[in-house]
Amino acid sequence: MRNTIEILGVKIDRVTAAYALKRAEHLVRTPGVSMIFTPNPEIVMAAYEDPEFRDILNSADMCTPDGIGVVYAAKMLGTPVPERVAGFDLTCGLLESLRKTGEGVFLFGAKPGVAETAADKLREKYFGLNVCGVHNGYFTDDENDEIIRQINESGAKLLLVCLGAPKQEKWIYANREKLTSVNLCMGVGGALDVFAGVAKRAPEIFIKMNLEWFYRFVTNPSRLGRFAALPKFMRTVRKDAKKR
Questions:
Q1: Out of 3, 6, 181, 242, which residue is the most buried by the measure of CB atoms under 10 Å away?
Q2: What CA–CA distance (Å, rounded) separates 80 from 202?
Q3: Which residues of the chain have pLDDT under 50?
Q4: What CA–CA distances, in Å, run from 32 to 13, 182, 184, 211?
Q5: Which residue stretches of the chain are H helix?
Q6: Whole-prediction pTM
């Protein structure tokens, strides 16, 4: 039984990082396609404004509170979550688990060549990890069936979809019934860029201080438009809290 709260209509699981990992480990070994999404404030705000996207998020088997803004929002609404559960950290924990048990993972997304580099580096970092297929995130609708065929034939049990939100979540939802070998799909944004070394994650000190968002802004000011969603998100949550 899931223990969830609602933030602007989006169901967020009240989980610790440890529990989220155990849940993911269970789902990746359970037949039938399950979905894990990792909403941050930008994603929640997008879902608030897009009912179709909101319904897709709410159809997931687990939505972790990725982003300190989501944690603050939950507290503001009087329904706190235990902690932030970043999608990247959850993915790393799951890959470490699969390294030991052998289930295959398929990497789907990023620019051409990035997934291949990420696969090589992941095999080095998680010795024994079975990366059984990759495909970049630049494709046409006509190529979709071929990508699904490749995923199915790879035998992967975990599919990491890194197309950016909301595209990745909508792709997973639209194609979930066609994925015959996969047990768990996760939408994890720019994770492949980080795994490949194309992008850097914030230093540990920023992560521990819940300032990862600030590090991203300082190192990449071009993301200003995306960060503008954060104050809008908090204002909307505050209004919602006053109604309760």
A1: 181
A2: 25
A3: none
A4: 21, 7, 8, 37
A5: 17-28, 41-49, 51-58, 68-76, 87-101, 114-125, 144-154, 167-175, 191-196, 204-208, 212-219, 224-227, 229-243
A6: 0.92
